[in-house]
UniProtKB/TrEMBL annotation:
TM region positions: 51-69, 89-109
Domain Ubiquitin 3 binding protein But2 C-terminal: 104-206
Upper lineage: Eukaryota, Fungi, Dikarya, Basidiomycota, Agaricomycotina
Entry annotated with the keyword Nucleus: no
Name of the molecule in the record: Ubiquitin 3 binding protein But2 C-terminal domain-containing protein
Disordered: annotated segments: 1-41
InterPro entries: Ubiquitin3-bd_protein_But2_C
Biased composition (Basic and acidic residues): 19-33
Lineage top rank: taxon: Eukaryota
This protein's UniProt keywords: Membrane, Transmembrane, Transmembrane helix
């Protein structure tokens, strides 16, 4: 017959752990002192394990904080005033164009035949007619390009609208004259018809049209700048050049302002 454990004993102190091992179905609440004795040793072991893990976690956290503080000190922003600045002599060299230039005039001034004593000062407003003429002056620099010419620079109509620019005209603008004139002493700051520079030679003519239109109208070929009627002249030396722009039988009015979209009579180097 199978053994069994009595439900109650006369003397509780006679009960031993061997009885528990022999009878695993013994109710623990009937012998609380036995349960305490059995579980006391595993509880202390778990407590020491928890404290050890907590201590290791604190050590890892402290090490991480120390490492972050050390790295942030090394990577902190530095004052740029202590760094070496680029050589300022390099910048002007890099800004000098290597190819032929289109040069804006230094002075633009008007003279009016109908008001021969009327004084005009330099400005950007260009007026050409049978009574009005314009004088342009360039202060030339030394250059490796020895030939220059005067040309009309007229963008297509859509580019003019985008740049908020326009001009008014009448008659044919296909042969606007460019004259070489005497260079006045001093700066060309004010002028009358009676004090205007004297004409020397007719350099040529320009067409005040967009490039595509004038190529079709005048049947221009590549290299047309090298041939008449292009107003060409020798350049490449430091000197002052003054020219007169004349529109016979036509009128033209616009503002010549130094901007990325040019509408102008400009001087160009021929490379």
């Amino acid at each position: 017959m199978g053994s069994y454990l009595p439900l109650q004993r006369d003397d509780p102190e006679e009960f031993s752990l061997d009885d528990v091992n022999k009878h695993p179905h013994l109710q623990q609440d009937e012998h609380p002192d036995v349960t305490s004795a059995v579980s006391e040793s595993p509880g202390r072991s778990q407590m020491w394990t928890d404290w050890l893990l907590l201590l290791l976690s604190l050590l890892v956290a402290a090490s991480s904080c120390a490492l972050y503080a050390s790295s942030s000190n090394r990577l902190a922003p530095r004052d740029a005033r202590g760094l070496r600045m680029p050589d300022q002599l390099i910048l002007p060299i890099l800004m000098v164009p290597s190819g032929p230039m289109m040069i804006f005039p230094n002075y633009i001034i008007r003279a009016n035949k109908a008001m021969p004593d009327g004084i005009y000062e330099r400005g950007s407003h260009v007026v050409l007619s049978d009574n009005d003429t314009m004088f342009y002056q360039w202060h030339m620099r030394d250059s490796k390009y020895k030939t220059c010419y005067i040309d009309a620079v007229v963008p297509p109509s859509e580019e003019l609208r985008a740049a908020n620019k326009s001009y008014t005209s009448s008659g044919s603008l296909a042969a606007i004259q460019v004259w070489n004139v005497t260079t006045p002493t001093g700066r060309l700051t004010n002028l009358t018809w009676n004090t205007r520079p004297e004409r020397l030679t007719l350099l040529g003519t320009v067409a005040f049209y967009p490039d595509e239109k004038r190529r079709e109208m005048l049947e221009l070929m590549d290299g047309w700048q090298l041939f008449p009627p292009t107003p060409r002249f020798a350049c490449g030396e430091k000197r002052i050049e003054t020219f007169e722009i004349v529109c016979e039988g036509c009128t033209l009015e616009f503002d010549q302002i130094f901007e990325p979209t040019p509408l102008a009579f400009d001087l160009l180097e021929l490379g």
